[in-house]
Specification:
10 helices, alpha/beta, 276 residues, five-stranded parallel sheet, TIM Barrel
C-alpha cells in the first residue's frame, strides 16, 4: 500500500513551547537549506514524493529552495507565515497570516496551494473556527487536527482518518481533514508516525503499527518530520526539561530511521495520493 510523507518546512528555532522563544525578525544561523537537501536526496534515492508544508517566512527567505522542491516533484502546501499558534491569534490575524503564506507560495510555484497544516497542530476546540477560514481561502484540505489531546495541541476523540469536518455547525463543506496517523491501545489514542513519536519509538514498533494501519484499517500512514529532526548539529534552544526531551530525544538516529521507513514503505504526497 502507498503511504504519505509530509515535511513541515521550518527552521531549527521555530518552536511554540514558550512565548517569545524565537523571533522571525532576529538573526539566526540558517540550517534549513542543508537539511532539506538531505531530505530531497533521500526521497530521490527511494522514488518517494512528499508534501512540504512550507512556512511563508521560509519561502520569503529562501525562494529558490521552494522552487527546487516543487521542480523535484513534491507538493508545496502552506504552514502559515510566521509559525504562530492558531489558538493564540484572532480570526483576522489568522486569515492574514494564512493568506500571506498562500500568496507567497502560489507566486513561487505558479499553481494553487491546496493544503494547510497549522504550526504545532494548533487547530483545537478553541480554534476550530479556523476551518471555515481555510475553506473561504480556497484550500482543499487541512492537516492540523491531531486526534489526541496534549498540553500543546489536539482534540480528544477527533476522527482518526480523512473526513469532511463540520464547519460552522454544518456538514457537506468542501474542505477535507487529513489527520496525522495514530493507533489505539486500551481505548487510548497514541501517535507514532512523526515528530517526537517517530524518534521515541524503535523502528520495529513503527513498522508493526504502520502495517496495522495499512492492512487492518486499510488506510495510508501519514508520516511527518521537520528538517531539524535530521540535523543533530543544530543549535539547542533553551527549553524546560520536558520540552527539551520532546524536541531532541533520539535526534541522532532520526535520519537513519527515516531511510529505513523509505526502504520499507512506498511514500507519496497528499496531493498525489488523494488526486486533489
Amino acid at each position: 500500500m502507498v503511504n504519505i510523507m509530509c515535511i513541515d518546512l521550518e527552521e531549527w528555532f521555530h518552536s511554540n513551547f514558550n512565548d517569545d522563544i524565537f523571533g522571525n525578525t532576529k538573526k539566526y544561523e540558517v540550517r534549513v537549506i542543508e537539511s532539506t537537501h538531505k531530505l530531497l536526496n533521500h526521497f530521490d534515492s527511494h522514488q518517494a514524493k512528499a508534501t512540504f508544508f512550507v512556512l511563508g517566512f521560509i519561502a520569503e527567505k529562501h525562494p529558490s529552495l521552494i522552487k527546487e522542491i516543487h521542480q523535484r516533484g513534491h507538493e508545496i502546501a502552506s504552514h502559515g507565515y510566521a509559525h504562530s499558534l492558531v489558538y493564540k491569534q484572532t480570526l483576522s490575524e489568522f486569515r492574514e497570516d494564512v493568506y500571506k503564506s498562500k500568496a507567497i507560495l502560489e507566486n513561487l510555484v505558479g499553481k494553487p496551494i491546496k493544503g494547510y497544516r497549522a504550526p504545532s497542530w494548533s487547530v483545537t476546540e478553541k480554534s476550530i473556527w479556523a476551518l471555515e477560514v481555510l475553506q473561504d481561502l480556497g484550500f482543499i484540505y487541512d492537516s492540523s487536527i491531531f486526534p489526541i489531546e496534549t498540553f500543546l495541541y489536539g482534540i480528544k476523540g477527533a476522527e482518526r482518518f480523512m473526513h469532511k469536518p463540520m464547519i460552522n455547525g454544518k456538514g457537506g463543506g468542501g474542505l477535507y481533514e487529513i489527520p496525522p496517523s495514530t493507533f489505539k491501545v486500551f481505548n487510548k489514542t497514541m501517535g507514532f508516525s512523526g515528530g517526537f513519536y517517530f524518534r521515541a519509538l524503535p523502528f520495529a514498533a513503527i513498522k508493526i503499527l504502520a502495517n496495522h494501519i495499512n492492512n487492518k484499517e486499510h488506510q495510508p500512514v501519514i508520516f511527518y518530520l521537520h528538517p531539524r529532526e535530521i540535523d543533530p548539529q543544530q543549535p539547542r534552544l533553551k527549553l524546560k526539561t520536558l520540552e527539551h526531551i520532546i524536541s531532541y530525544l533520539n535526534i541522532n538516529g532520526c535520519e537513519k530511521k527515516l531511510v529505513k521507513t523509505l526502504k520499507t514503505f512506498k511514500c507519496t504526497s497528499i496531493e498525489r495520493y488523494y488526486h486533489f
